[in-house]
Amino acid sequence: MKKVLAACIILLCCVLTSCTQQKPAALHILLDVCGDSRSAAEAEAKMENFITNMAYSGIPIEAEIEVMPVTGSDRKAALQRVRTEIASGKGPDVFILSAEPRTVNAEPLFGFPECAMDDGRFLVLDELIEKAQFMEWDKLTPAVMEAGRTEDGQMLLPLTYTFPVTVFRKGEAALELSPDLTWDQVLAEGSPYLKAAAAPGSRCGSEYLSGLLGELADYPAEELLFTQEELVQRIRETLELAQSRDEKAFGELPDYQGFPMCVDFEYDFYPKKGDGSYAALRPGDPVEMAPLYSVQGGCRATIRTYGGINRNTKRPEEAFAVLDMLLSGEVQAKGALFSQDLLVGSVPTHEDLMREGCEVRFWSMTDENFQAYERARQQITSAGFGNRLTNELFQLYAKCSWRMKPEDLEKQAAETYRVMQMMLAES
After folding, report:
1. Which of 144, 171, 291, 316 has the CA that lies 20 to 30 A from 260?
2. CA 425, CA 427: separation in Å to the nearest integer?
3. Cα angle 362, 285, 263; round to 5
4. Edge-to-edge order in the sheet of strand 287-291
């Protein structure tokens, strides 16, 4: 009898142990969208609230939220650990990431999202997108979403992006926009207003030079799509353009200002006057917008933040539900994580937002200004992720000025070009 009882106890223990081992782990969400330690701590709370709201919407998910350390040795250790987990068939289920970390010199988890897609790091989402409950795929900017697609299908979901624009007061600049326009055509035949829009400004941002060059690399082939000589040529063209503008070679220009397109742009905007002084633009003043045209034609957008699902995930439906809701118009407009973290210096991918009645951060454009924004947005013909190449180009351009000696410019460009080639080879 004792033997039978002992055997029963052992069997019961085995069953209990088996049940414990088979309990599914919580959905692991990795968040890396913050610029400092304080915002990182706050982002975790916002993500927890987002998961709670999902439960209220009928999608209860048990989630483990990991916020990537922002700087220092903690970040390096976390990056190494997560990369090792992914390589071994594990790792987070969901990635919500900034393409370029907002902390200076911070290394991203995926230095080249394009290469990570080609390497099969992410789950193909096409079948899940067809069953989406919250996102409206047809209302997401097509050229931007296309950047997350490979021959195998949609792998990454861009969340926010930006592109260089120049704003004039309505009626003060005649703008003839076309997605077929190229950088060379603007320089040769463009109006003074388009040339002013093409010239770099004090707020041109990291997207300027990469936006001008357009498609930067063939990532599978590990090759840059422009030569070192072309890089020097394009920088010289921008510097000469800026000098011509400042010397009034384009004539007297009306008030204008160039900047990376973002939510709330009206509240941090001082258009430049022809005499070099600045005049405040009041929120709601009617405006016209011109984008920066690339060498390859049309405007190129830069993706600031994106989401993806680990190909190793054991819970694809739950993982996709997180991204599905994150891309909904309501969350992009009102979600705390979106408005306070993801939308820094950028605009949402949902095309209905920022118009009257569809406020983002309690802000919207007038119908008239939203139409101007739509015309500029329609010039977007391609998009790419901010990555180590765009950062190198930004660092290079920050060192250049029209006073620089030609040999110094060539030396700086040669070093940057060498570094970019090395980065691609190591990707």
Report:
1. 171
2. 6
3. 35
4. 256-260, 164-169, 287-291
Chain Cα centroid distance, residue 412: 27
pLDDT, position 384: 96
What's the CA dihedral at 333, 337, 339, 340 to 10 degrees?
Answer: 170
Strands (E), 135-214: 149-150, 153-154, 156-162, 164-169
Chain CA centroid to CA 390, Å: 11
What's the pLDDT score for residue 275? 59
Altogether, the residues listed in the chain come to a count of 427
Q: List Cα–Cα distances, 29 to 22, 61, 87, 321, in angstroms.
A: 20, 11, 17, 12
Look up residue 342 and give its DSSP letter. Answer: I
Distance CA 149, CA 125 (A): 10
Long-range CB contacts for residues 6-14, cutoff 8 Å, separation at least 24 = none
Whole-angstrom Cα distance, residue 351 to residue 302?
A: 16
Q: Distance (Å, rounded) from C-alpha 49 to C-alpha 56?
A: 11
Q: Indicate the SS3 state at residue 217.
A: strand
Q: Do the strands 156-162 and 299-309 form a parallel or antiparallel pair, or are they unpaired?
A: antiparallel
- Six-digit token pair at 5? 């009882």
Distances (CA, A) of 194 to 13, 162, 175, 177, 345: 76, 19, 7, 9, 23
Amino acid code (one letter) for 312: N
Neighbours of 14 (CB within 10 A): 10
Residue listed under structure tokens 């992009």? 332
Q: How many CB atoms lie within 10 A of CB 330?
A: 14
Q: Which residues contact 69 (CB under 8 A, 6 or more apart)?
A: 37, 40, 75, 77, 78
**The two structure tokens encoding residue 127:** 């079948």
Give Cα 40 to chain centroid, integer Å.
18
Query: What are the Cα distances from residue 86, in Å, to 10, 109, 321?
Result: 37, 11, 21
pLDDT at residue 279, as a whole number: 65
**How far apart are the C-alpha atoms of 179 and 205, rounded to whole Å?**
22
Residue 258: predicted pLDDT: 86
What is the pLDDT at residue 405?
Answer: 87
CB-CB contact of 157 with 323 (8 Å): yes
